[in-house]
Amino acid sequence: MNQQQQNLFRFLVALGDDSVVLSHRLSEWCSNGPYLEEDIALGNVALDYIGRARMFYQYACEVEGKGRTEDDIAYFRNEREYTNLLIHELPINDFAFTMVRQFFVDVFYCEYLKQLMNSSDETIAAIAAKAVKESRYHLKRSEPWIRQLAEGTDESLRRIKDALLELENFVGELFLMSDWEQSLVEQGIAVDRAKLQKDWDAYVQKFLGESNVHFPDSQLQIRGGREGIHTEHLGHMLSEMQYIQRTMPGLQW
Amino acid sequence: MNQQQQNLFRFLVALGDDSVVLSHRLSEWCSNGPYLEEDIALGNVALDYIGRARMFYQYACEVEGKGRTEDDIAYFRNEREYTNLLIHELPINDFAFTMVRQFFVDVFYCEYLKQLMNSSDETIAAIAAKAVKESRYHLKRSEPWIRQLAEGTDESLRRIKDALLELENFVGELFLMSDWEQSLVEQGIAVDRAKLQKDWDAYVQKFLGESNVHFPDSQLQIRGGREGIHTEHLGHMLSEMQYIQRTMPGLQW
Amino acid sequence: MQSVDSAAEQAEFDRKIAEEQKIEPTDWMPDDYRKNLIRQMSQHAHSEVIGMQPEGNWITRAPTLRRKAVLLAKVQDEAGHGLYLYSATETLGISRSELIDALQTGKAKYASIFNYPTLSWADVGAIGWLVDGAAIVNQISLQRTSYGPYSRAMIRICKEESFHQRQGYEIMYALAKGTPEQKQMAQDAMNRFWWPSLMMFGPHDSESAHSGRSMKWKIKRQSNDDLRQKFIDQTVPQIEVLGLEMPDPEIKWNEERGHYDSGEINWEEFYQVINGSGPCNHQRIKHHKAAHDNGEWVREAVRAYRAKQNQKAAESAA
Amino acid sequence: MQSVDSAAEQAEFDRKIAEEQKIEPTDWMPDDYRKNLIRQMSQHAHSEVIGMQPEGNWITRAPTLRRKAVLLAKVQDEAGHGLYLYSATETLGISRSELIDALQTGKAKYASIFNYPTLSWADVGAIGWLVDGAAIVNQISLQRTSYGPYSRAMIRICKEESFHQRQGYEIMYALAKGTPEQKQMAQDAMNRFWWPSLMMFGPHDSESAHSGRSMKWKIKRQSNDDLRQKFIDQTVPQIEVLGLEMPDPEIKWNEERGHYDSGEINWEEFYQVINGSGPCNHQRIKHHKAAHDNGEWVREAVRAYRAKQNQKAAESAA
Question: EC number(s) (chains C, D) (predicted)?
Answer without folding.
Answer: 1.14.13.149
